[in-house]
Amino acid sequence: MDWITTVDHKKIAILYLWAGGLFFGIGGLEAILIRIQLIKPMNTFLDAQTFNELITMHGTTMIFLGVMPVIFALMNAVIPLQIGARDVAFPFLNALGFWTFLFGGVLLNLSWIMGGAPDAGWTSYTPLSTIEYSGTHGVDFYTIGLQIAGLGTLIGGINFLATIITMRAPGMSFMRMPMFVWASFITSAIILFAFPAITVGLVLLTFDRILGANFFDTSAGGNSVLWQHIFWIFGHPEVYILILPAFGIISEVIPTFARKRLFGYSSMVFATILIAFLGFMVWAHHMFTTGLGPVANALFSVSTMLIAVPTGIKIFNWLFTMWGGQVRFTSPNLFAVGFIPTFTMGGVTGVMLASAPADFQFHDTYFVVAHFHYVIVGGLVLGLFAGLHYWWPKMFGRMLSETLGKWTFWTFIIGFHLTFFVQHFLGLMGMQRRVFTYLPNQQFDLLNLISTVGAGLMGVGMLIFLTNIFLTSRKPADAPDDPWEDGRTLEWAIPSPPPEYNFKQTPLVRGLDAFWKEKTSGHKTMTPAEPVGPIHMPSATILPFLMSVGIFIAGLGFMFSRDDFGNAFMGFMFNHYLVTAIGLVITFGSMLLRSLYDDHGWHIEPEELEGR
Amino acid sequence: MMKTWQAGKRLLPMTAALGLILAGCGREDLSVLRPQGPAAESSFDLMKLSITIMIVVLLIVFSIAAYVLVRFRRKPDQREIPEQVEGSFKLEVLWTVIPLILVVVLAVPTVKAVFAAGNDHSNDKNAIKVKVTGHQYWWEFQYTDYGVTTAQDLVIPAGKDIAFELSTKDVLHSFWVPSLSGKMDTNPDGTTNRFSFSAPNEGVYRGKCAELCGPSHGFMEFKVKSVSEAEFEKWVKSMKSPAVLPEDPALAETFKSQCLTCHAVGDMPDLSSAPNLTGIGSRESVAGILLNDDTGVDGEPVLENLKTWLHDTPGVKPGNKMPDPKKDMGLSDEEIDGIAEFLAGYTLD
Ligand code: HEM
Ligand SMILES: [Cu+2]
């Protein structure tokens, strides 16, 4: 109950982490099944339809439900601490964002047991995703599930923007913010601009499918290529939503374990902004073979290549942060150090893809599969591992085992390169992506086998990580405030895990790497910016949960509104949109309750603060 | 402009070496790395240039990383705090400018090649015009100037430019012959694509569908057969000869009433709801994926393949739109085998 009603950013972070872990596990299992099917030519382990459902759900789950919540978990856990705040700007909305995300994800995954998962690829290109060619409810689960989950993401993004703009501790100017906060800030801005695009796209596709509209039907005056534009105007920025937080994490971990401040801080900030900006200008590089013509292809080619410049700045700045430092190979830093070459390899294949005439060959082959897994897995997932190992003691008060952490790193990264490096060659040798099997004697066999073995090894790495978490959770919570000893930012100045109110007194920030600055000038703690006084706290509430349940019910009701149930009662309820209405009543009722009932929260008194 | 060219020239030896290594990868009739025509070569040249640049970048990053990690490890007795360096304006400018130059080196030939690839031959009198239509899960090829329609095997005269007009009857597909050219999507009417390529060397090349189009997407293959000009003319002529039917009148009737409602043969009007069967005994494959090979190395003899297909259409290509001859059309095993034998013998002279 405590968990359902909480509005504390630290608890919501943990909720995001478990939910993300769950979906990540589902997506991972799907990946393993896909790789087993491809282990040899003409394999019959899975049938074609199931395979297409698995690739669709794997992509969708990983991008929207697997890594996004883990990113949000870290952002929730860390941002308020790093800027010296007591919570996020809108704790109620924070909880609402989590619950809508979770119910959207659950709705999407219900498709496995409710008559057919989506099968048109995570990009759901029309006309394949229209009712004519995808007749089950699969794609409806996709449109409506993602719509609900996307709502949560948008709420979360806006909340972080407001938090970072308004709640920084005294003295923390924008140019004194930790790099992770900067990255999260830019990420949230991208969310704000990119998610409305997919929202609109999903609405249009839902209308085409459920209400018989014709936005994407060429024969009725629609345009099927339109979907691709809408999807990628969202979809390309989305990949930066994923990678920028990883950049932020790496920029925190490396300075800590090199005992040096981040090299070229201001150029890092500038590069981040530039990447975000260019990220919106390059969507059509996913569409070179759609037939946009040479002018568009040339423009999008060149603008895409330009992204290599700010990305390069970042890589060299990280390397030079370590230059002249004292590098310690703790498990978080192993992941961070492993990130640099791996991500660079994904970046350079990105530049190769950007050359349109070459992309005519690369597009929709295993070369692209290799490229984006190098970026998303080799970049983002390694980054998340670094972040999780790094902040785990702060979030849970317990140090993860270093030995197991190192085992996780080595099995995972070796498995990763085995899996994906060979896929570059598969693509170049003529293997298209999204094929459920392939004919023998095309010289694809050995490389596919290697790839599957590698995927198994990555799975082992994940299991070691889970074991680590399990064993750690049974140890006493005795992590020191600054467990890595060289912590530089504010979160290391308070206990692990932090008390409910984070900072007894809001700290005064006197420079970049605020805590490090105090430590090197001989202080043990931060200088407070205020006297000890009563701390205002928001009340726990179940309303966000209820509102999300309502949206979930409404979504299901709308989705099945045209079905023939062969049962008078069910038919009546669904076909007259009564189920939808019930869901909406729950949601709007909760909203009404929230606005009518004035809740002023509560206070923690100074005596209580001192008493602990 | 001069400068970029110089930089490009310095990369040449490595490009050449790489080209040699990569050219060992994959089948000649399938691999992007063993281009067999000018369009694929142009892509391949860009790939070699970009791979070279990228390998140089990787080598630099890897060596700096390796050096830093070895040289600056923390030693057990280290206690003093390293100097906290702000950054370095010079260095940061350096690694902004160098990537910019590299991008320009790649961007210039890219833009040139983009416009060269956009140069289609639809108004070229010497080009062969072919209308390609994607269907779930087969390919239709119409030679508009010759009044010939065929499926699965695209026969072209070696060395001539082929001007394609691409569209689809259902969902999106993508037309791709890796060793001859990059791919191009087949969109619904209204967004028809054009492009062209040529195959200077005679031979058979493997083509694929590269856009997810349903369960049998992976099986939506086709062959490009590059033949001499004389052979091409001969092929066109025999494609236009009158329709052939089974000799046994009963079988002929079954074939007509059951199969020819969707398929066409010879000079019959083509409704294009199913692949044209004219001369199917001479094709490279049945259904695009059952390879005809009398030696049994890559596939089975054409008769075996036709029997496999007709006895189990849904099993061979999941989700395909042809009714099952036995279950849906009520043909007996003998009738199916008879039709298979007839089709296997239906060759072009
Ligand atoms: C930074 C994080 C990045 C992520 C997460 C990412 C992810 C992806 C994904 C998922 C795709 C596949 C789309 C599909 O066909 O389904 C893709 C394709 C592509 N990416 Fe990236 N990418 C990233 C960075 C880059 C960079 C830095 C570049 C270029 C400088 C780039 C260039 C491309 C291009 C040109 C394609 C299209 C390839 C094709 O569809 O043929 N990407 N990327
Ligand atoms: Cu296809």
TrEMBL record, chain B:
Its main location: membrane. It is a multi-pass membrane protein. One of its GO terms (cellular component) is plasma membrane. Binds a copper A center. The keyword Phosphoprotein does not apply. The chain crosses the membrane at residues 51-72, 93-115. Keywords: Copper, Electron transport, Heme, Iron, Membrane, Metal-binding, Respiratory chain, Translocase, Transmembrane, Transmembrane helix, Transport. Its EC number is 7.1.1.9. The keyword Translocase applies. It comes from the Bacteria. InterPro entries: CcO_II, CcO_II-like_C, Copper_CuA, Cupredoxin, CuRO_CcO_Caa3_II, Cyt_c-like_dom, Cyt_c-like_dom_sf, Cyt_c_oxidase_su2. Residues 125-238 form the Cytochrome oxidase subunit II copper A binding domain. Pfam families: COX2, COX2_TM. Its cofactor is Cu cation. It is an enzyme of class 7 (translocase). One of its GO terms (molecular function) is heme binding. GO terms for biological process: ATP synthesis coupled electron transport. Subunits I and II form the functional core of the enzyme complex. Electrons originating in cytochrome c are transferred via heme a and Cu(A) to the binuclear center formed by heme a3 and Cu(B). Belongs to the cytochrome c oxidase subunit 2 family. This is Cytochrome c oxidase subunit 2. It comes from Paenibacillus graminis. The lineage of its organism: Bacteria, Bacillati, Bacillota, Bacilli, Bacillales.
